[in-house]
Amino acid sequence: MAPEVRAELVRDVMTPGVVAVRPDASLVEAARLMRAQDIGGVVVADGQEVVGVLTDRDIAVRAVAEGLDPQTVSARAVCTPDPLVVGPQDPLRAAVTLMREHSVRRLPVVEDGMPVGMVSLSDLADAWDAKAAP
């Protein structure tokens, strides 16, 4: 029988802090930031407003594979606009359900209209692994 994960809220597993790019940032800028931070996705933010999520997969599939120039194409052009979001106090099950139903791997965590973190499938797996360890 699989061990039960005890984390109950998004805040228990999310990665706090926000790594963001401006909507007009080039895909090269975004990719370099992802590499420097060792992450697979960033929030696209206009000031404090979340306008999208840009992932390494978005860059590869929506830009590079289509022959677009990552030095001139903006984050806004290929990001997922108006992303689904969760709050830090939301039940973890709600985040899992959103990810499953909408086939997304990352959700921005927003509190009082401001991004405060990100929760990813990797965060969920890490939480599960921590609880599974003897």
For the sheet with most strands, the description reads:
4 strands, mixed
Radius of gyration: 15 Å
- Please tell me the total number of domains: 1
Give unreliable regions as ranges: none
How would the global form be characterised?
Answer: globular
CATH superfamily, called what? CBS-domain
Question: How would you describe what is shown here?
Answer:
With 134 residues, the chain is an alpha+beta fold. It has 5 helices and 7 strands. The strands form 2 sheets. The chain has a 4-stranded mixed β-sheet. The protein has a 3-stranded antiparallel β-sheet with strand order 1-7-6. The longest helix is centred in the C-terminal third of the chain and has 12 residues, at 121-132.
Jot down its keywords:
single chain, alpha+beta, CBS-domain, three-stranded antiparallel beta sheet, 134 residues, four-stranded mixed beta sheet
